[in-house]
Amino acid sequence: MSARRIFTRPARIAAIAPYLWMALFFLVPFAFVLKISLSQTAIAQPPYLPVFDIALGWQALKAAFAALSFDNFRLLASDNLYIFSGLRSLTVAAVATTILLLIGYPIAYAMARLPQRWQAVAMTLVIVPFWTSFLIRVYAWINILQHDGLLNKILLALHIVSTPVVWLSTDSAMYLGIVYSYLPFMILPLYATLAKIDPALLEAAADLGSSPLKSFWLITVPLSLPGVGAGVLLCFIPIVGEFVIPDLLAGSDALMIGQTLWLEFFTNRDWPVASATAVLLLVILLLPLLIYDRFQRRQMGRS
Amino acid sequence: MAEALPIITPDSGARAGLPLLRIEAVAKRFGGFTAVDGLSLDIKAGEFFALLGPSGCGKTTLLRMLAGFETPDEGRILLGGEDIAPMLPHQRPVNMMFQNYALFPHLTVRDNIAFGLKRAGLPRREIKVRVAEMLALVRLEGLEKRRPDQLSGGQRQRVALARALARRPQVLLLDEPLAALDKKLRENTQRELLELQRRLGLTFIVVTHDQEEAMTLADRIGVMNAGKLEQVATPRHLYEQPASRWVAEFVGDVNILEGHIESRDDGRLTVAVPGAGTVVVTAPREATDSTNVCVAIRPEKIRLSRRAPAADAGAMNRLDGAVTDVGYLGGASVYTVTLDSGAVLRASLANTARLDVDAFATGQRVVVWFAPDDCIVLER
Predict the structure, then answer these.
(1) CB neighbours of B75 closer than 8 A, spacing ≥ 6?
(2) Predicted local distance difference test score (pLDDT) of residue B316
(3) Half-sphere exposure (CA, 13 Å, Cβ side) for B195?
(4) Do the domain assignments include residue B240?
(5) How confident is the model at residue A187 (pLDDT cuts 50, 70, 90)?
């Protein structure tokens, strides 16, 4: 059956709506950012040049176009600050996502094996933290991790340490904050795929001489890969651009790209360089998405 | 187990040795529910055995205990003399074909079939040979690189069969093996399955709720009800000599006439049936003590005619009535006859002529007749 016959006219109009939304709230703003990234910084309002103004006529518009350049991107490529913060972002995201996967998988697996009514309870427990603002939860971690915070008090009381340990403003604190904040985004897609796996498949594997451990490796793991892919993407991409957690919990000696962007925009008031950074970030993040898309296509091709 | 009947060919030859599989007083409870209730059963090597019963009768639980997915609360399961009840599923020399096949969706047909062989640690070359052998056996050559979702229902069924047979199990368990196939395909597959079992000489235990399937496939059928075996017999024995009213009503269609024994003489019982008059039946082997009995007659054993048959009145039961409903089924028609005395009987007559002018229409007065030998006397 052709798509033409399935979709009636109103249905086709409705199908346009998401594209319209994307165009209006993603494509158009992105065009603005892209344009600013090709501009030069200026002490003006807005703080960049050139400014397109149709009222000045065709010649002025042409001149404005001619004034656009890739200088900001050249700056990004030449200055170590941007390269390092970009690399740091990718490293932090990779390490944090790995930790998230290692912690999230067993939790999701255990949830999927609970009796049906307990699964709903477990699901609620995973989602409950969302009822409190993300920012407040990160501030709570500052309270716990600070010099005379809860963690040090407990460690001292148990005589595990004799002097307070420096937790705050370290990478460990940042990883703790990231893993804590993103864990639900890893667990939920993993749980969704694990719960879908037919228990009869594991029985069939056992029937054919497979030990439980072997069955897990040969059946459960491969069948949960789509969930792994979704969970990894859902965590990796926002962590690369993460700003709040590293800013509040990590030290100030190394910046992530989100922090650099913030600095350029608010402290240096260099909108063009900040925009160029944003464009670069987007390009970096398209990469894992494309890989995932290929992976999904391969999966689809099988069926 | 029920007694041997003269109409059944005795299967005494295989009686000599021990049975391959012996189920001894096995019980399984889930909470307060008793799924299998102290059940004992022997299955011979090379036998095609069917467990038949309504849903919830415990037949699947019994099969799962044989496979090792459930552990019996009581009793023993002896395979070749060894108790396998404490063994884990992956340690047992039995394999199972699952109801919805449970094929591994991420593996090709070849890898599905090779799965059990790889776990057995067979050398690569041997695995290759065996997979090819299995593919030929179930006629799936050329499809080895497909994934399960690229196969038709019938092909999937055959992959499941090949996968379960690849390890050459001593006993193959089949859980509703044909339930997911449409009718035409099911008939073909039944024949194939039977042929395969004969050729390989394997022991098959099939669980089914479809009595036609059980009858076609099995050497012997165990009819289960509420966790117990009601009767274990050959298909023919089961149909013609059911052990209880429950079995008679579960297997096939049957007319039941409740009555009480009026007199016994010369191997005949005269049973008075309210609503039908008196019915003469052949006395069963074991004399029934109770006088309250029911007489069971299969619809195809009943004949109808416009006038009373010439046969000797004493040799034939004759009852008068009128046709009140006709169900045309193609090969046969089922006539519902309401007797003048009130009882309702169903008679199934083969439509032997294409242009049957003799067919009985609704409202037609008929004589219903059947032989005393065709009646089964059962406890109420």
Answers:
(1) B23, B24, B25, B26, B27, B38, B39, B40, B85
(2) 83
(3) 8
(4) yes
(5) very high
| Residue B18 burial (CB count, 10 A) | 12
- CATH label of the domain that carries residue B334: 2.40.50.100
Question: Is the domain defined by A78-302 classed in CATH 1.10.3720.10?
Answer: yes
State the pLDDT at residue A300.
Answer: 65
Residues B236, B274 within the same domain: no
* Dist CA B245 CA B294 (whole Å): 8
Contact A222 B106 (CB under 8 A): yes
Domain locations along chain A: 78-302
Q: Which two tokens stand for residue B77?
A: 């399961």
pTM of this structure: 0.82
Q: Which domain holds residue B41?
A: 13-93+169-246
**CA–CA separation, A209 vs A155, rounded Å?**
48
Instruction: Count other C-beta atoms under 10 Å from residue A252's C-beta.
Output: 9
Q: What share of chain B is helix, strand, coil (3-state, %, to 5)?
A: 25, 35, 40
| Interatomic CA distance for residues B132 and B338, integer angstroms | 61
DSSP structure class, residue B315: G
* Cis geometry, peptide bond prior to residue A50 (ω within 30 degrees of 0): yes
Please identify, among B229, B246, B263, the residue that sits at the C-terminal boundary of a domain. Answer: B246
Kindly list the residues from chain A whose CB atom is less than 8 angstroms away from the CB atom of residue B103: 204
* Whether residue B322 sits in one domain with residue B181: no
ipTM: 0.83
Q: Which residues of A touch B90 (CB under 8 A)?
A: 206-211
pLDDT tens-digit map of A257-291: 999 999 999 999 999 999 999 998 888 888 888 88
Of B235, B120, B228, B201, residue with least CA distance to B166: B120
Q: Count of domains in chain B? A: 2
pLDDT tens digits along A197-236: 999 999 999 999 999 999 999 999 999 999 999 999 999 9
* CATH assignment at residue B52: 3.40.50.300
Same domain, B87 and B53: yes
Q: Looking at the structure, do residues B265 and B233 belong to the same domain, yes or no?
A: no
Please check whether residues B353 and B260 belong to one and the same domain: yes
**DSSP H or E stretch at residue B225:** strand B220-225
Across the A:B interface, residue pairs with CB atoms under 8 Å apart total 63
Residues B89 and B71 in one domain: yes
In a domain? residue B271: yes
Is residue B24 a part of any domain in this protein? yes
Distance between CA atoms of residues A239 and A245, nearest Å: 9
Cβ–Cβ gap A203/B98 under 8 Å = yes
Contact residues, A window 220-249, toward B, CB-based 8 Å cutoff: 222-223
